């Protein structure tokens, strides 16, 4: 006899997700333009955290190079926005560097559709290639982590060195329009916020579906015992490559959305420090729980914004203290704390019910 999937806990979880989604879409009603723009950036970061949780929390592979995938998506959208703002002329930094014609690889980015597709496919394919090279050769653990950090160094060095094509250290900025609409217009900003919120919800649903499917079960099995998975006939490298490619594509999507709200992309956003911060979002929110990744990204960046505004030099100490507290006392993060409290409540309730059924004599 099959168990009923519509348990009370599941129903309340779905109600909670629906309420959170409604609150996100209603945010323009109760937030100022400044706060709405901040929230939009945090939601873009949450998409990165979802992808990172998929590869780290569910597959057990720690990547410290997701800033590269995030930045590649950002540069893809920035190239379109820069060409849109230039009105058919070469970007200003190319003229300053002595170029006389728009480089051939820039021309396809005159199309928003091409830029959007490139912002997802390029990071996804790069992640797939890196995964193919490493996972096929069974490069795991700290060696893979070091390799992803090396990728960050290579990417930032190339972007800085090719100033005539990438804007160098200053990056690409000076956007004014998207699809003919002014980015500074409040109505456009509100629409871009709703688009970001919608993409986050879709990404969350897709990731939840993946981890609940047979694919997700194999990922968890690889995390807990890769050799056993290989022994029973699965190819762990194939699943790891797929998860890493999806994770990279999500980071690229987040980078594109982030650029729409910030208005600049530079090599510093691809660096090692941003990549480590992304890992901290997942760790503090609770890895292995998709909702924890979202909460960690939003809460951490909200805290960074609020605390650094009041105490500019204190945020790094606060972030370090939070990480120590989570590692020592909350290894499963904020989401794990909620699960622990729920479990305690259930045990207490069950004990009380047992006491009512069997009172002490």
Task: Describe the structure using short key phrases.
single chain; 361 residues; mainly alpha; two-stranded antiparallel sheet; 74% helix; 2% strand
Short overview:
The protein is mainly α and 361 residues long. Helices cover 74% and strands 2% of the residues. The protein has a domain at 33-271.
Topology summary:
Layout (H helix, E strand, L loop, with lengths): L7 H18 L1 H4 L2 H24 L9 H21 L5 H5 L15 H24 L5 H21 L1 H4 L5 E2 L3 E2 L2 E2 L3 H27 L1 H18 L4 H27 L1 E2 L6 H14 L4 H21 L4 H15 L3 H25 L4
Helix pairs in contact: 3-9, 3-11, 3-12, 3-13, 4-6, 4-11, 6-11, 9-10, 9-11, 10-11, 12-13, 12-15, 13-15
Would you give an account of this structure?
This protein has helices spanning 8-25, 27-30, 33-56, 66-86, 92-96, 112-135, 141-161, 163-166, 186-212, 214-231, 236-262, 272-285, 290-310, 315-329, 333-357, and strands spanning 172-173, 177-178, 181-182, 264-265. It starts with 7 loop residues before the first helix and ends with a helix. The protein is an all-alpha fold. The protein is globular. It contains 15 helices and four strands. Strands 1-4 form a two-stranded antiparallel sheet. A two-stranded antiparallel ribbon has the order 2-3. Helix 3 runs parallel beside helix 9 (186-212), helix 3 crosses helix 13 and helix 4 (66-86) packs across helix 11. Strand 2 (177-178) and strand 3 (181-182) form a beta hairpin. It has a domain at 33-271.
């Amino acid at each position: 006899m099959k168990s009923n999937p519509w348990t009370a806990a599941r129903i309340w979880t779905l109600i909670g997700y629906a309420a959170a989604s409604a609150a996100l879409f209603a945010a323009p009603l109760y937030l100022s333009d400044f706060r709405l723009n901040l929230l939009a950036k945090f939601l873009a970061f949450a998409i990165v955290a979802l992808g990172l949780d998929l590869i780290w929390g569910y597959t057990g592979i720690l990547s410290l190079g997701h800033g590269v995938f995030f930045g590649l998506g950002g540069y893809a959208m920035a190239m379109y926005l820069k060409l849109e703002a230039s009105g058919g002329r070469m970007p200003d930094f190319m003229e300053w560097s002595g170029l006389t014609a728009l480089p051939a690889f820039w021309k396809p980015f005159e199309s928003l559709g091409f830029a959007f597709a490139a912002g997802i496919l390029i990071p996804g394919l790069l992640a797939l290639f890196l995964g193919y090279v490493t996972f096929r050769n069974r490069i795991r653990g700290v060696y893979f982590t070091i390799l992803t950090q090396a990728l960050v160094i290579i990417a930032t060095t190339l972007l800085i060195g090719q100033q005539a094509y990438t804007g160098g250290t200053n990056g690409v900025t000076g956007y004014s329009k998207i699809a003919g609409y002014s980015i500074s217009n409040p109505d456009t900003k509100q629409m871009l916020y709703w688009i970001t919120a919608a993409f986050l919800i879709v990404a969350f649903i897709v990731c939840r579906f993946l981890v609940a499917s047979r694919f997700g079960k194999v990922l968890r099995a690889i995390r807990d015992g890769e050799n056993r998975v290989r022994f029973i006939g699965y190819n762990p490298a194939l699943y790891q490559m797929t998860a890493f490619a999806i994770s990279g594509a999500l980071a690229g999507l987040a980078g594109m959305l982030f650029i729409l709200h910030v208005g600049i992309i530079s090599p510093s956003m691809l660096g090692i420090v941003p990549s480590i911060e992304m890992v901290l979002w997942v760790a503090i929110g609770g890895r292995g729980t998709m909702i924890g990744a979202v909460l960690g990204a939003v809460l951490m960046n909200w805290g960074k914004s609020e605390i650094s505004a009041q105490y500019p030099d204190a945020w790094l100490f606060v972030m370090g203290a939070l990480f120590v507290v989570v590692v020592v006392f909350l290894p499963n993060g904020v989401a794990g704390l909620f699960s622990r409290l729920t479990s305690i409540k259930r045990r207490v309730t069950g004990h009380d019910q047992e006491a009512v059924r069997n009172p002490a004599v």
